[in-house]
Structures are given as C-alpha cells and as structure tokens.
Amino acid sequence: MAFQILLNIFLAFIWMFLKVSYDPVTFFVGYFFGFLIVFAFRRFFNSRFYILRVIAVINLFFLFIKELLLANIAVLKVILKPRLDMKPGIFALPTELKEDWEITILANLITLTPGTLVVDISLDNKILYIHAMDMGDAQDEINNIKKTFERAIMEVSR
Amino acid sequence: MKTNDVILQTVTKITLFIIILFSIHLFFAGHYYPGGGFIGGLMTSGAIVLLLLAYDMKTVANILPIDYKYMIGVGLLFSVGTGAGALLFDAPFLTHAHSHVLLPLLGDTALHTAVLFDTGVYLVVIGVTMTIIQTIGEDE
Predict the structure, then answer these.
(1) What's the CA gap between B73 and A122, in Å, rounded?
(2) Kind and range of the H or E run holding A40
(3) Cα(A37)–Cα(B47) distance, integer angstroms
(4) Chains A, B: CB contacts under 8 A, how many?
(5) Helix residue ranges, H only, A81-134
(6) Which residues of B touch A47 (CB under 8 A)?
(7) How far is A51 from A40, CA to CA, in rounded Å?
(8) Strands B98-103 and B107-112: what pairing?
(9) In terms of CB atoms within 10 Å, which of A16, A70, B62, B82 comes out highest?
(10) What is the CA radius of gyration of chain B?
(11) What residues of A are in contact with residue B43 (Cβ under 8 Å)?
(12) Interval B24-33: pLDDT, tens
C-alpha cells in the first residue's frame, strides 16, 4: 500500500518536471494521471489497489464517530434511569487480529461501544477481557458489534 | 536455459509507470508541441511490450485483461463519433469546435474536440500494435 502511494506521488512529481510547472494544480493533475495508471496496473502489485484501503479507513472512522455518539446516549439513558437494575460482568472475547495496532484499535473501539470496557488483554494477544455494564441482554448483541468492528479493521489491514 | 530476470523485472516495475506517464504527456502536448495520439499510443504500447519482455504472455494477460481488438473498435468509434458530431450542429463532417472553460480546480482550460479524435487515434494505435505483437508472440 505504502509503495503504491509513494509511486503515485513520485509520478506526480515527474509530471511536474515534464510540464516545467510547479503549481499545486500541476501536482494534482499529475497525481490524477498517476492514479489512473496505477489503477490500470492494479493487478501488477501484490497488495490491493490502495484506494480500497483508504476507503476502509474512512469507513472505520465514521463507524468510530457513530459508536461514540451511540455509547454516550446509552450511558445517558442508564444514568437518568431511576432504578439501577443492570447486571455488570466480565466476559472473554477471542480475537483473530494479529498486529499490535489492530488489537489496540479494536480495544479502543470496544471501550467506546455502549456499555463495554476492555479491562485486560491476554499475554498472547488472543483474548480480550471485557467488562460489560449489562450482561443479561447484551451478550449476543455485543458479540455482533465486535464482529462488525473486527471485520472493519480486517478490511483495512487485509 | 532459464535465467533469473529479477533485475529486469524490478526495473520494469518502476520504468513502466514513468514511460506511460511520459506517453500521456506526449498525448496532451500534441496541440502545441511535438507529440499527439500516434506517438503517445506507440509509447504506451512500448511500455506494455517492455512488460511482455520482462514477464511472460500469461502474466501480462492477467495484469491487463484487455482484448486489444475491441480497443481498435472503440478507438474508431471515438474518431467517427467526433467527426459525425459536427453534423448535429449543421457543420461539415470533421469540423472541430473549441472553447475556454473555467473548471473548478484547473482554472482556465482550453477544451478542444480534436482531443477526442486524438483519443481515438491513441486507442487504435495501442490496439493495432498490441494485436500484431501478441499474434506473432502466440505463434509457436
């Protein structure tokens, strides 16, 4: 991915040298043509075409914003409830993610989902221990949310 | 004898893109400077030929799944289409129009329908060259 972006920028600079014009506009035009060329030869590279990853990152960002809003609304509801009838608990979530940064992002996203908080991660980076605010009804639903997060992160790193 | 083409392949990986970028530069330079659809197309197909030299036929067909015979057809359609477009405006066949347009990012840009005609030439040249080379290459 980094190679493709670097190549695209490199092509944009070559375009500027060919045109003997050092405006930002020339850079963008060169970047556009480089983009088309890299797109035409996308099967030439070992990794996917880089714009797909950029889109995946943007998706992950909007997912993050959405969950942040939902989490705060959910917590607000609990605070305003007159009776404290929830059942807190801790459960383990096995994860398929390997890289350190992937696990960090997943943990941070889980912490921001409604009513969950990452307490600890096992030493082999395979299991996340999560504190849930309301264990009873949430278990399945939370696991679904984890699947969407895990998938969104995998889209980025694949 | 099978040789290791790693140097050729690695150099191709970078030069290929520079050659194609230069061919696009030549293509767009055609109106005011030496260049145009013909040498732009030839140079693009030259880059693909370099790819064919560095890799084998099957790999290139995987990288660029294009039927070059269709490319000739599309290019001819472009050229005939721009020529016939003049008839819609009560002008003789192949009359070209041009104007200056203020585009959002690019600023004052001269747009000329001759570029579309040149695009047709560009595609036909790539199509013909690649068809010839591939047909000869596939002959065992």
Answers:
(1) 62
(2) helix A24-40
(3) 12
(4) 39
(5) 100-112
(6) none
(7) 13
(8) antiparallel
(9) B82
(10) 18
(11) none
(12) 999 988 888 8
**A11–B18: do the CB atoms touch at under 8 Å?**
yes
The H or E element that residue B110 is part of is strand B107-112
Residue type, A96: E
CA A69 to chain centre: 16
* AA letter at A3: F
Q: Are B123 and B129 in contact (CB under 8 A)?
A: no
Cα separations in angstroms, A2 against A29, A54, A88, B130: 20, 11, 43, 31
- The verdict on a CB contact (< 8 Å) between B105 and A28 is yes
What are B113-138's pLDDT values in tens digits?
888 889 999 999 999 999 999 899 87
Other C-beta atoms lying within 10 Å of the C-beta of residue B62: 11
Is A20 in the B-facing interface, judged by CB distances under 8 Å? Answer: no
Write a three-state SS string for A121-152: ECCCCCEEEEEECCHHHHHHHHHHHHHHHHHH
Cβ-defined contact of A15 to B25 (cutoff 8 Å): yes
pTM of the model: 0.77
Of the partner residues A14, A33, A43, the one whose CB lies closest to the CB of residue B62: A43
Distances in Å between the Cα of A50 and the Cα atoms of A6, A26, A41, A79 are 11, 22, 12, 44
**Between B140 and A46, where is the model more confident?**
A46
Closest residue to A25, CB basis, from B17, B63, B107: B107
| Matching residue, tokens 């989902």 | A113
Token pair of B70, please? 């269709």
CB contact under 8 A, A14 and B18: yes
**Alpha-helical regions (H) of A47-115:** 50-80, 100-112
- Is residue A150 within 8 A of residue A95, CB to CB? The reply is yes
